[in-house]
Amino acid sequence: xxGELHRMTGLMLLIALAAGICAGCGGEFADTSRSGIISGGAxxxxxxxxxxxxxxxxxxxxxxxxxxxxxxxxxLYVEREDEDGEEIDPxxxxxxxxxxxxxxxxxxxxxxxxxISVEENGLFCIRSPWNETExxxxxxLCRIPIEKGEDGFDVVRTDQAEEISGRERxxxxxxxxxxxxxxxxxxEDVVKYDRRSKQTVSEANMGLSALHVRKCGNYFVxxxxxxxxxxxxxxxxxxxxxxxxxxGKGIYEEGAVFGQxxxxxxxxxxxxxxxxxxxxxxxxxxxSEEQLERACTGLAGLKQLKFCGVRDMWYEAGRLYxxxxxxxxxxxxxxxxxxxxxxxxxxxxxxxEKEITECMSSRGRTRKGKFITGPDYNWRSxxxxxxxxxxxxxxxxxxxxxxxxxxxxDHDKKKGQAGxxxxxxxxxxxxxxxxxxxxxxxxxxxxxFWDYGNDGNGVVLGKDPERMDFSFAPFRxxxxxxxxxxxxxx
Length: 490
Description:
The protein is mainly beta. Helix content is about 5%, strand content about 40%. The longest helix is centred in the middle third of the chain and has 12 residues, at about 290-300. About 45% of the residues are buried.
């Protein structure tokens, strides 16, 4: 599917940060010290949200944890996480691990098609048993109870699976799990199921195929996942009717980041960042392309850049964090850098996150060399795209729960190492697989319309810092997908 291809490309973005990031101000931003950074509990659109309900009403009986759509308070669940070289299990499974990474189990679920969501006392998934008579799969939305075990692992009761939907011949395209409601798409129909009464409360034919649904604060959002168009519907959490957002540009499903009743996205035809406010049912430019380019140009200490573009966005504690990639010529050397900015809903100027950016760059090793590109990953031919380049092996791969997570690429070991920066205290820690924080970015997907569950291709949730390397560059020619950096020999 096209969305899955986008995700695969996104998992392999270039890790490049030039050395010697300038501290001077330039362009349209405010250089604010760390003491001005808002921190604390995350405001996330990725996990299930809304008002908590009691167990008898279908909820988990506690306040919901933020950013935890794929874990309980003790265990993390990852769909089909086969290790490299491991023989593929004939029975589909979900990998279950302790949150501190101290152990892992396989939870085999017959006919598993997709893991959807995890709560403290239940796991939601789509199963597709084969219909021998008609020779097609029958999609079923299921809830599997979870009980607490004595060994630190949850007990997943696959023998007590509850079928929420009927056995549907049409494919279930998308599912959104709320503490009280489950909204799912079958063909062109949008079904809303009340977990409290265990009944369908609404069903609407939208006349569109391949629809997708997502929770955004106190709203459900619905859009056409195939077409790049302006079709976007929303519904209040306890409502039954879908309303159309009339304003705004076409919404690009891969680039959306969700907040509380708002979300941010980059449209197909320009590089501005738009804000869609569901409370006002309107979209507007939130951060312009020119605004970011002026800010990056000032930080580079130049009048003009070769390239400037948004590479990542995250919404955390009321602020949109934006990671920009910039490239420029300094003499004969081609420099590439990542700069981090942020802006709240009340602000009109971006703020340069100086401490985060400088902490990140100081941990990466600056290297000189050249970039080689090829037409594809088979390297049937290649060319030197840039002869003299300067890079730094570091980038931010997530801002979540009051922390910024870095991937610091180790060229000698050919893999990255994770680091964690506390937005409130400014403290930095290296992370290993023995640290609970290492898995924190896996609790929910990294963001984007397609991330209502896993992507079905065995890719771990979020971005794995060990798997990130150089695979994108703004100087490549059309059709060239493969990029590698070749370090200059001393």
